Amino acid sequence: MRAAVFDSHGPAHEVLRVEEIDRPEPGPGEVRVRIAASGVNPTDWKARSGATPRPIGDFQIPNQDGAGVIDALGAGVDPSREGQRVWVWLAAAGRPWGTAAEWCVVPADQAVPLPDGISFELGASLGVPAMTAHRCLFADGPLDGRNVLVAGGAGAVGHFAIELAKHAGARVATTVSGPEKAELAARAGADLVVNYKESGAVEQIRSFAPLDRIVELALGANLELDLAVSGPQTHIVDYAAEAKDPVLPVRALMSANVTLRFVLLYGVPRPALLQAAADITQALADGALTELPTTTFPLEKVAAAHDAVQSGAIGKVLVVP
Q1: Are both 242 and 135 inside the same structural domain?
Q2: 13 with 111, same domain?
Q3: How do 259-262 and 294-298 pair as beta strands?
Q4: Residues 257 and 296 placed together within one structural domain of the fold
Q5: Which of 321, 264, 319, 265 is closest to 294 using CA atoms?
Q6: Between the N and C ends of the chain, which has fewer C-beta atoms within 10 Å?
Q7: CATH number at residue 237
Q8: Residue 261 resides in a domain
Q9: Among 133, 123, 198, CA closest to 170
Q10: Segment 247-265 mean pLDDT
């Protein structure tokens, strides 16, 4: 099969190459998926570049997320799953078979049935962003009737955080940095969209409601705003690391009585990941999740796809084998 591979860390155009390798066969409890689309996330370029290095065996196929059709089953897998349309999550976590290839092998429960009418493009966009959003939203309890602030509502995690929170019965405010991103966040269903660069942002959020959750992607940069709109019921949940670790204003945090939580998907307990996958699939079936603007690259241009995500491309970047 044709696959993107790397065997050392470094810049995309230096270490990524597309070549023919042996097509994998599923082992016990595994399925093989014919990949229709592969999603690219920041975690993918960071792992490949060495910014957050992970061990490499003889080779590594990049990209955690994807969608396609199951075409082979390992021992112990329900025979009815052959031919099933699926979305795939954390394919390359501790395994060489990422989704930037014509085929991928994953544990059967990491290939989740894709509801009828849901495109492969949307399926390949889920995985890391939607499951991260789910953990940030629900790790501290249900959301029905609660109030949520999503920082960066136009990004992939922010987009699915807005939609999953709305699906769960929450009211959602979000912050963005400009008109184009404001339009994307409003389209996702946010009840309030605030440009955090404009004066009066804190007052707008305060007038929205007492906040129960803040889904945060830049704790250091946004903590002053977060604290200004937080209270004893607020959980601030951060899912991204900045270049420089923030200095926490302990007294201000104590005075606000907030709870800080940090989320990295690779360390989330497996039962919580499986629940996230189930809840995301139900939201898909209910029509609650939508596609972001998509930029698609052929497999031969996988390095350009990684560079696009690293450069902060708006929307979702996909690779099509």
Answers
A1: yes
A2: yes
A3: unpaired
A4: no
A5: 319
A6: N
A7: 3.40.50.720
A8: yes
A9: 133
A10: 96
- C-alpha count within 13 angstroms, C-beta hemisphere, residue 181: 22
Residues ≥6 apart with Cβ < 8 Å to 48 = 6, 9, 10, 12, 15, 16, 60, 62, 306
pLDDT for the residue 124 = 98
Same domain? For 142 and 18 the reply is no
Q: Of 109, 105, 98, 103, which is closest to residue 62 (Cα–Cα)?
A: 98
Per cent of the chain over pLDDT 70 is 100
Same domain for 133 and 100 = no
pLDDT band for 277, please (50, 70, 90 cuts): very high
- Whether residue 287 is contained in a domain is answered as no
Residue 158 CB partners (closer than 8 Å, separation 6+): 133, 150, 151, 152, 174, 185, 188, 215, 217
Give the confidence band of 54 by pLDDT, cuts at 50, 70, 90: confident
249 and 134 share a domain? Answer: yes
Is-contact 297 276, C-beta < 8 A?
Answer: no
Q: What is the DSSP string of 276-301?
A: HHHHHHHHHHTT---PPPEEEEEGGG
272 part of a folded domain: no
Give the residue numbers spanning the domain of 229.
129-266
- Give the angle subtended at the CA of 286 by the CAs of 265 and 86, to the nearest 5°: 55
- Helix (H) or strand (E) holding 48, with range, is helix 42-49
Q: Which two tokens stand for residue 114?
A: 């894709």
Q: Determine how β-strand 17-20 pairs with β-strand 2-5.
A: antiparallel
Specify if 280 maps to a domain.
Answer: no
Shared-domain flag, residues 89 and 213: no
CA–CA distances in Å: residue 304 to residues 120, 183, 233, 310: 21, 27, 44, 10
In 9-166, the DSSP E strands lie at 17-20, 30-40, 65-73, 85-88, 103-107, 111-113, 147-151
Residue given tokens 């955080």 in the structure block: 161
CA torsion sign for 88, 310, 240, 94 is positive
